[in-house]
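Running log. JK asked me to keep both predictions on one page so they can be read side by side. First protein, sequence followed by its tokens:
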Amino acid sequence: MTTRIKRYIETDTGHRVPNHKSKCRHMHGHRYRFEAEIEGDVVQKSGVSDEGMLMDFSDISTILTIHIHDIVDHAFVVYEHDEQALRALSAMDDGHRTVVVPFIPTAENLAKWAFEQIQPHIVSTYGNRLRLVAMHVRETPKSVASWYA
């Protein structure tokens, strides 16, 4: 029988959608929630730390922290061809954190990016067929984008 679990981290991250028809074309930020959805079999091996689990939630949290949170938290994510934003951000000489990406940083594209960052680190230790099935990115309380395997 297959089980699914979810774990999330939150970041405060800025972005802009340069061609957007409305206010999202302006520089702004969100309290993003990056949520990993993992599927597999519950570990049955007796006496191991993960017995009765798919994967320890704290291990998932560590992966999310290293590969997402520590990259984009209190940073500005900018599309590599967004000349205006790149120019404005480069003028900040106080160690401002800018993350340049090869895509427009919409919630949809960030969900795919996050999936690609996390997927290689979800590994079955006990042969329990773990796999990352989705990354969900909540941009606002009412707006969520998901990327599925």
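And the second, directly underneath as requested:
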Amino acid sequence: MKKIYIAATQQHDGKTSLSVGLFLAAQKRGLKACFMKPVGQRYLLEDGAKVDEDAVLFKKALSAQGNLSRLSPVTIPRGFTEEYIFNRHPESIMGPIKDAFEEISAGMDIAIIEGTGHAGVGSVLDASNAAVARLLGADCIIAARGGIGRCIDEVALNTALFRQEGVECLGVVINKVYEEKYERLQRILAQGLGNIGTRCLGIIPFRAELTYPTVELVRKELGFEVLSGEDYMDKRVKNTIVGAMEPQNMVGYLKNGSLVVVPGDRVDNIVTSINAHLMHKEASTPQIAGLLLTGGLVPHLSIVNLLCRVDVPVLLSKDDTATSAYKVKELVAKIGPDDHEKLETTRQLVEQYVDIQQILQT
């Protein structure tokens, strides 16, 4: 059985996307594939158990084999790290990982194992990505973000730790490369990675649509309440604007997919945003993604009734406008189990731009 451990040079470099793409590519080629996230830091409660969100994605969206608790054998709750430092017990982490992997990988042709961050993440728990890869007998692939100097330097640092643990590095997949830089970086990175003794297995172009969260994801991740528009929560947020200026000035900043972050008592800007949205078919005004009313302020009932009659989701935040807008802008839009468009886009990108044959045959 082939075992591939997906690590990265830093957070949000595309581990999950690469894992999804390789998992689906293996299945497409008739291989029995399994998935595991050995150590999870961002977890959900499923049937009373803490399981990593990426394991939930693979189980619910891709029908990965095995019980969720086996796909995500170890999660790290708040406070655990400090306790572990003074009471080290490596087997309490490595044991469940090894047992779960033996169970889910039985009879499989390929195992996709998604790490947590860079090669050294987990060292404080005696369970770095490199150490877990060695435990499971897996080869690694490193996902890195587009660039030249920093990208190659970070790959060198990560491959060194994997090699120190005796783990073979199959190569690197570069993610999120802008189209205008693609051809140039393709040539440079192939040579630069070769210079440090590793291979470039693919360069995936940047796709803005993969960065757009749905309004529902914004609500869920940031804990906002829903005032109205529950049936339209699947709208995608492509940009965020703060509606704190006068209406005639604000309207010029509205774009398709805008989430308008506005104080709940700025009725003028709320109504202007809704009017622009409703007129998008007859004029060159945009179709907004939604409204986020801030300051814990709810408009007068007559305005709420108006909001309930339009196809616009409206969220409520207790934070001030600046804080609310900052939280939305900083939100990373990970792929969710119900996000079929992003899953399909990810599959196509990996299939087209990654040397899957080389990975599966190595």
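Observation for JK regarding the second prediction: The longest strand covers residues 169-177.
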